[in-house]
Amino acid sequence: MVKDRTTLRLQDVAEAAGVSIATASRSLSRTSGVSEEVAERVRGVAREMGYVANVHARSLAGGASRSVGLIVHEIGDPYFTEIASGVLRVGAREGLTVQICHTGRDPDQELEQIRTLIANRVGAIIVAGSGFVDPSQQAQAKEDLARYRRAGGRVAVIGRHHLSADAVLPDNQAGGRAVAQHLLDLGHRRIAVATGLRSLTTVADRLAGVEEAFAAAGLSFADVPVVEAPFTRQGGKQAAEEILAAHPDVTAVLALNDDMAIGVLSVLRDRGISVPGQVSVTGFDDVAVAVDLAPALTTVRLPMVEMGEQALLMALKEPSARPRRRTAGCDLVVRDSTGKAPA
Amino acid sequence: MVKDRTTLRLQDVAEAAGVSIATASRSLSRTSGVSEEVAERVRGVAREMGYVANVHARSLAGGASRSVGLIVHEIGDPYFTEIASGVLRVGAREGLTVQICHTGRDPDQELEQIRTLIANRVGAIIVAGSGFVDPSQQAQAKEDLARYRRAGGRVAVIGRHHLSADAVLPDNQAGGRAVAQHLLDLGHRRIAVATGLRSLTTVADRLAGVEEAFAAAGLSFADVPVVEAPFTRQGGKQAAEEILAAHPDVTAVLALNDDMAIGVLSVLRDRGISVPGQVSVTGFDDVAVAVDLAPALTTVRLPMVEMGEQALLMALKEPSARPRRRTAGCDLVVRDSTGKAPA
DNA sequence: GTGAAAGCGCTAACAC
DNA sequence: GTGTTAGCGCTTTCAC
Q1: A194 - beta bridge partners?
Q2: Which of A2, A64, A269 sits opposite B1 (nearest CB)?
Q3: Fewer CB within 10 A of the terminal residue: chain B, N end or C end?
């Protein structure tokens, strides 16, 4: 589309300014080799005409790419929304266009999105969705990204992936440990876990932390019910129903993300089960709304916005020989949804 | 970036398949003029090699654009997140890349984002953020978009804008009327309104509806306190503080979006003011979390996801002579945050 | 049905 | 410091 003669070309600007197209190009892309005086005049003319360079031509001619891609599992999910905020913020500051793609937690979709971004010649790709425990699920993506990097592309991932790239790593395991520890400290022993897909590294790591806490307390984790459902509010509801049906005597539900925890709270409220009086509930992520729920959600805070910022900043830096990694701390935030285990 | 000899070119595919570059192009872009047999073989070779066409070259050569731009005020805002979901869903279905930009509700930023999208030669631009009451604030954007349309670009807006383009129009005024009516029916007379920027058409329209309901009930709107603050959770808190300080006797707070309502609820909870016992609260939008709050929020439902879908679908359709418009209904959803006015 | 060749608008060598 | 020109990788006439 957009083929016409209304759209201004660099040549139009050059003519209007009375310089060659090369000089015009240099002036606008702020490359050296033009007298500041001429450059300023050209920029003035361009601004006045409302000229905006054709990104495709620029990219094709070998100019630097002014866009980056962000791959999330699900934009509807506040976890990713906040990461996206961070990425967009840095992007805006750096004058970068951000293309957001989502995968629905499907590795095949992820691969396709990665390829699309590469085809779009984005300068950097941020993979924000969790990795998969099984490396083979991302094998092809790994290969494509490696080729992309060799060709000069930058890659950063958020979370544990089998992709070799700069990474922002939330300490999910420590978070899982902390929140489980918290429940155990409150005297809970009949705890159920509501989790998303266990094939995700995020889930696996959080779960590992939980298990660790049980072990540290000398308790068996083997008979703790772990209910797997979609990593969403709806999944949380589903998990809660299942848990209440099979284990009506639980005193705490440990959800592995806030969205699920919100679903759990909703079911408990519908059933007239008091929180934390009868059942304590915990989440993970500390999404913006967690503090405004009633009861306010006890959860593990992850600095999602900062993680998004960090990821893009890392990707933008000069590539290092070996992948960089930055860990993001997890802080237990105790609010009103947890209390002592009922006697 | 990405200039190298690892990235496959169309020519590589053509050579591997033993055809000319023209035939390869036709095969891959499914243009007619190639025998199905050859085309299939070329596609097979390309797939096997992992070839992905360079979007920039394709676009520059005059091919159809496979990307669209979405402009939102704030991705952190669930209202826009849900619209984005809708747009991304349709985009994925149609094989389109979606570039999301946010403006922070700043008309200048908006203009810049529009220009960037045009420079990116996106095939369509969806403006999802509210318009501004003052046309002059978007005058330049209007001009740029008009030029873009003349050049073959597609534009759709969500909400009332002074931009002439296909539009998805939520009936904000009816919604405002309905929710105000609801409070009046419950016997509330000392009502305060918490609102975002009144320079936004969305706010103006909702407010007009509220005013209408007052008029219909034979009540004066003149002395209803209308507190303006950012259209966010934080803004809601701020507004609530102000309202409680200046008008401690209000029995209802009508917030003009859910985010603000959540902030209001939070302040009331902190102050130990019961909802809806002492004060009723209403929102607007019906974001996903509204139903899971405690108390569940009475609000006006807007089909945000569908609005996003509609907007992109409209933009993708053959352009019509005159702008199309689709209205999106507003439904009052009564939940637990509103009750009879205390005696 | 297939191939050769002319651009699309820009950047970056390379001349001057 | 400025201009000329050869591509970047693709689509699309236009020949055959």
Answers
A1: A227, A255
A2: A64
A3: C
- For residue B5, name the pLDDT band (cuts at 50, 70, 90): low
The CA angle A134-A139-A140, to the nearest 5 degrees, is 145
Q: What is the pLDDT of residue B249?
A: 96
The last residue of a domain, from among B49, B72, B88: B49
Whether pLDDT at A3 is above 60: no
Q: For residue range A38-48, what is the model confidence (pLDDT) as tens digits?
A: 889 999 999 88
Averaged confidence pLDDT in chain A: 91
Looking at the complex, does the CB of residue B262 fall below 8 Å from at least one CB of chain A? Answer: yes
Give the C-alpha separation, A100 to A85, whole Å.
Answer: 11
Q: Is B23 domain-assigned?
A: yes
Tell whether A53 lies on the interface with B, counting CB pairs under 8 A: yes
For the segment B176-185, the average pLDDT, to the nearest whole number, is 98
The CATH number for A24's domain is: 1.10.260
Which residue, of A282, A302, A322, is where some domain finishes? A302
In degrees, to the nearest 5, what angle opens at C-alpha B218 toward C-alphas B213 and B224? 65
| Three-state SS letters, A98-118 | EEEEECCCCHHHHHHHHHHHH
* Chain B residues closer than 8 Å to A144 by CB: 50
Structure tokens at B311: 């907007």
Taking only the tens place, the pLDDT of each residue in B18-28 is 998 999 999 98
Domain that holds residue A16: 1-49
Q: What is the pTM of this model?
A: 0.88
Are B54 and A62 in contact (CB < 8 Å)?
A: no
Lowest mean pLDDT among A81-90, B32-41, B163-172, B254-263: B32-41
Substitution target in A9, A28, A55 with the highest count of B β-carbons within 10 Å is: A55
**A299-301 and A331-333 as β-strands: parallel, antiparallel, unpaired?**
antiparallel
A61 touches strand C (CB under 7 A): yes
Report the number of distinct structural domains present in chain B. Answer: 2
Write the single-letter amino acid at B201: T
At A115, the pLDDT band (50, 70, 90 cuts) reads confident
Tokens of A301: 């805070």
In a domain, A99, yes or no: no
Q: State pLDDT tens for residues B60-78.
A: 887 677 889 999 998 888 9
Task: Report the 3 state secondary structure along chain B.
Answer: CCCCCCCCCHHHHHHHHCCCHHHHHHHHCCCCCCCHHHHHHHHHHHHHHCCCCCHHHHHHCCCCCCEEEEEECCCCCHHHHHHHHHHHHHHHHCCCEEEEEECCCCHHHHHHHHHHHHHCCCCEEEECCCCECCHHHHHHHHHHHHHHHHCCCEEEEECCCCCCCEEEEECHHHHHHHHHHHHHHCCCCCEEEEECCCCEHHHHHHHHHHHHHHHHCCCCCCCCCEEECCCCHHHHHHHHHHHHHHCCCCCEEEECCHHHHHHHHHHHHHCCCCCCCCCEEECCECCHHHHHCCCCCEEEECCHHHHHHHHHHHHHCCCCCCCCEEEECCEEECCCCCCCCCC
Report pLDDT for B6: 65
Quick check: A75 and B81 in contact, CB under 8 A? yes
Nearest to B258 by CA among B112, B2, B79, B99: B79
Residue A138 lies in a domain: no
